[in-house]
Design goal:
This protein has five helices and five strands. Helices cover 35% and strands 14% of the residues. The chain has a five-stranded mixed beta sheet with strand order 2-1-5-3-4, with helices on one face. It starts with a strand and ends with a helix. With 160 residues, the chain is an alpha+beta fold. The protein folds into two domains: 71 residues, Beta-grasp domain (Ubiquitin-like (UB roll)), CATH 3.10.20; 72 residues, Orthogonal Bundle (DNA polymerase, domain 1). Helix 2 packs antiparallel against helix 5. The model has no long low-confidence stretch (mean pLDDT 94). FE2/S2 (inorganic) cluster binds next to loops. Pfam families: Fer2, Fer2_2. Its EC number is 1.2.7.4. It is an enzyme of class 1 (oxidoreductase). GO terms for molecular function: 2 iron, 2 sulfur cluster binding; anaerobic carbon-monoxide dehydrogenase activity; metal ion binding. Pathway: Alkaloid degradation; nicotine degradation.
């Protein structure tokens, strides 16, 4: 069985993994990252999105062995010192969730889309979140939350 080294939310792990084990199952079932949900297991819904070496990926579409040597950030590792990440706070303040199942993936995808465009238009946000499905909200508050999160993250960078 292959042994992989992986950093998750700043913690280093070495794990023996079946070659066919999916990253999302490693995260949830072995490493306690149950904040990353499984909505479909077929790469459709985006609920399982995490950051892999700084880019968002659907962790149900990545094998654990492919993440060997990588740095993973899940929704549980976003905040610092018990505080929410600005994008998490924006989702909270804009009421951008109902059941909350899609929210971890939405937040990760939203942060990723700001890497290319720190001040995205509504259209850019909607395109950037195309791979993340929400079955409750109708997306309006999600778009508002991403804009608000983008503003707060921009201010956080500009404020010394
Ligand atoms: Fe991975 Fe739906 S659980 S995309």
């Amino acid at each position: 069985m292959p042994r992989i080294a992986i950093t998750v939310d700043g913690i280093h792990y070495e794990e023996d993994v079946e070659p066919r084990l999916l990253l999302v199952h490693l995260l949830r079932e072995r490493l306690g990252r149950t904040g990353t949900p499984v909505g479909c297991d077929t790469s459709n819904c985006g609920a399982c999105t995490v950051m892999l070496d700084g880019k968002s990926v659907k962790s149900c579409s990545v094998l654990a062995v492919q993440a060997d040597g990588c740095d993973v950030v899940t929704i549980q590792g976003l905040g610092a010192n018990g505080a929410m990440h600005p994008m998490q706070r924006a989702f909270h303040e804009e009421h951008a969730l109902q059941c909350g199942f899609c929210t971890p993936g939405m937040v990760m995808a939203a942060i990723d889309l700001l890497r290319d465009d720190p001040d995205p238009s509504e259209e850019t946000i909607r395109q950037g979140l195309e791979g993340n499905l929400c079955r409750c909200t109708g997306y309006c508050n999600i778009v508002r939350a991403v804009r608000r999160g983008a503003q707060e993250m921009g201010q956080a960078v500009r404020t010394p």
